Amino acid sequence: MAARPRIRALIGGALAAGVAVIGAVAMIPDANAAASTLGAAAAQSGRYFGTAIAASRLGDSTYATIAGREFNMITAENEMKPDATEPQRGQFNFSSGDQIYNWATQRGMKVRGHTLAWHSQQPSWWGGISGSTLRQAMIDHINGVMAHYKGKLAYWDVVNEAFNEDGSRRQSNLQATGNDWIEVAFRTARNADPSVKLCYNDYNIENWSYGKTQGVYNMIRDFKSRGVPIDCVGLQTHFTGGSSLPSNFQTTLANFASLGVDVALTEVDVTNASTSQYAGLTQACINVPRCVGITVWGVRDSDSWRSSESPLLFDGSGNKKAAYTSVLNALNAASPTTSPTATTSPTGGGTQSPSPTPTTGSGGGGRILGAQSGRCVDVPNASHNNGTRVQLYDCNGQTNQQWTYTSSKQLQVYGNMCLDAAGSGNGAAIQIYSCNGQTNQQWNINSNGTISGVQSGRCLDVWGTGNGQQVQLYDCWGGANQRFSLS
Ligand code: G3I
């Protein structure tokens, strides 16, 4: 539901400091401005939009630029799998996984862990052991990897693809260690990191009437009834020649959610990127309050594991495809009332919470309200451009006024841009910029109501109270023009 920005004549900044500004014309945000990236559009209803990242591609500037701009959740495509993280028994290697983790979190993105126990991409030494030895190796692996990422990830795919198409358990070396291997994996995971949400992840569980869907559903219902810790189900959503978007997809999501777990679309790709299937799968998620987000399995078609089917949202040159627009439009049309139900921490409790910790607000963020002006910190014209200076404006609850204070002290807007100081001296401009993890994008929320820059030590400050008044840095003195509340 995109609406065009309107132009209003503003008398800006004339109410204070004796600054005479007459008839200044500024672009100011429309009440229903649409977001222009997938992550920001999803954030409007409290969801994320993610992609799988391959560490080896991060040096490709087109790839990194698109990924950094569009997404706010990242899954390592291969780098956190057992063969990558424990190539020899007891010898862990997190170099590629950390490369992706650091790249993502430096940009204010969250990370899904994928995956801890799977019949595929196992370290070769798992092939030489079985029974209780393999069971113990799986437990040790989960403990070793989760210790490394403790408190850092939003979700972990604890177990991946453990079912056959008919709903029975897949015969694998892990299954051969005993039918309880999955619940042992989840119990181990909860103890290893109580702060992260624990997911079961699989493909071909999108059609409610399919045997495999029923098999997974019954396992989760059983786990819930017996107190086996599980927080979420990932539906991979690989729609290929043999499996396209089922008409009952939303029913499937709703039925899983009714068991008391989050649901997510975790590895989406669609043969030839059918616009109707992409729009339909997005809408199904939007319609289910506990559907927390969507991840596509790669950035450009050329990055896909099935690139010959051109299944992603960007073509090989990095251009947005029609499917991109269909997804963006569906996300922008979502009402905040369809946002995911707030969920409590995983049942194991724990003191660490996945970062970032959002401020309040239905769109995933909260307002920064000026004490003197009663107006909100606002990105003019809902701009997403680096370097756009922020201003005061009448509070309207739109996404260009919704800020999320993260555990790394960033004030994020749109899910992937940060409040940024263009300098550190008195009068330095306060603008939005792509999140980069630097200290000029880190802020302390002080008990006296001021917000000070970690780099500069100076405070957010306004010289006036009117619409269009620009925000700057200035020596902290605690006056009303430097006090803001996050709400
Ligand atoms: O890195 C090596 C390279 O050095 C070597 O020359 C080359 C030779 O084939 O292989 C490269 O490794 C490949 C790796 O992807 C990185 O590109 C592996 O062979 C290849 O098997 C591996 O495929 C991955 C596949 O999982 C393995 O099962 C795909 O990238 C990855 O997208 C895919 O992801 C899975 C999810 O984890 C689970 N759900 C299904 C999904 C698609 O299969």
TrEMBL record:
Family per similarity comment: Belongs to the glycosyl hydrolase 10 (cellulase F) family.
Superkingdom in the source lineage: Bacteria
Lineage runs: Bacteria, Bacillati, Actinomycetota, Actinomycetes, Micromonosporales
Q: Which SUPFAM superfamilies match?
A: (Trans)glycosidases (SSF51445), Ricin B-like lectins (SSF50370)
A Pfam family reported for this protein in Swiss-Prot or TrEMBL: Glyco_hydro_10
Q: Give the EC class as a word.
A: hydrolase
Residue ranges occupied by any GH10 domain in the UniProt entry: 32-330
State the PROSITE patterns in the record. Answer: GH10_2, RICIN_B_LECTIN
Q: Which PANTHER family match?
A: BETA-XYLANASE (PTHR31490:SF88), GLYCOSYL HYDROLASE (PTHR31490)
| Name listed for the protein in its UniProt record | Beta-xylanase
The EC number of this protein is 3.2.1.8
Record's compositionally biased regions (Low complexity): 334-360
Read off the InterPro entries from this record.
GH, GH10, GH10_dom, Ricin_B-like_lectins, Ricin_B_lectin
User: Where is region (Disordered) located?
Assistant: 334-367
